[in-house]
Automatic annotation (TrEMBL):
The chain crosses the membrane at residues 51-74, 86-106, 118-139, 151-173. This is CDP-archaeol synthase. The gene is carS. It catalyses: 2,3-bis-O-(geranylgeranyl)-sn-glycerol 1-phosphate + CTP + H(+) = CDP-2,3-bis-O-(geranylgeranyl)-sn-glycerol + diphosphate. GO terms for molecular function: CDP-2,3-bis-(O-geranylgeranyl)-sn-glycerol synthase activity.
Length: 179
């Protein structure tokens, strides 16, 4: 059980941190350059080049650290933890950012203003993006590491982690909304 839960969360860590790093680093030029589609912004002012670049870089850097730490941490816990080839780390980190950007596109098309909540999508957009891009960049690694059981753990635990981290970020005053 520990092996299943710890392994699943460990494997997702490079996809968990990019969005939080983007919140801290965000600002500057929006990716959509202010363009609109219909009545609404294409993506909105909350998706910036800087946030996306810093978020991706932080996720990749964390993957490198986790890759080096996997044997020692696994030993200490008495389990085997996955390492991260660079293409897997990049797929997870960039995929998480792209999933979040894709969700903003969907939010704007459905009439939601920047910052509006979209329960379900908000908590899982980056999971879907991360897994799909990891599958594209590192197919063998992704299929081996993300077993159906681990994916099930990720889908159940991620929304809870996401609500908790964003709640804390809101409470600390670094995020405008608690979702
Ligand atoms: N951010 C960023 N670039 C990204 C993602 C996030 O700069 N690719 C920063 C922005 O400052 C953004 C903040 O992180 O306002 C919070 O992110 P998020 O909640 O995803 O964006 P929202 O502003 O709520 O916009 P949206 O409604 O489009 O999700
Ligand atoms: Mg938001
Ligand atoms: K979001």
């Amino acid at each position: 059980m520990l092996e299943l839960i710890a392994g699943a969360l460990w494997a997702m860590l490079p996809a968990y941190v990019p969005n939080n790093a983007a919140v801290l680093a965000g600002g500057g030029r929006p990716i959509d350059g202010g363009r609109t589609l219909g009545d609404a912004r294409l993506l909105g002012g909350g998706k910036t080049w800087r946030g996306t670049a810093v978020g991706t870089a932080v996720g990749v850097a964390l993957a490198l650290v986790l890759d080096a730490a996997a044997p020692a941490v696994g030993d200490a816990l008495g389990i085997t933890l996955p390492g991260f080839p660079i293409n897997a780390g990049l797929g997870l980190a960039l995929g998480a950012m792209l999933g979040d950007i894709g969700a903003s596109f969907v939010k704007r098309r459905s009439g939601r203003e920047r910052g509006a909540a979209f329960p379900g999508l908000d908590q899982l957009d980056f999971v879907v993006g991360a897994l799909l891009l990891a599958l594209l960049f590192a197919p063998d690694w992704t299929l081996q590491v993300f077993t159906p059981a681990r994916i099930a753990v990720v889908v159940v635990v991620t929304p809870l982690l996401h609500l908790a981290t964003n709640g804390i970020a809101y409470w600390l005053g670094v995020k405008d909304e608690p979702w």
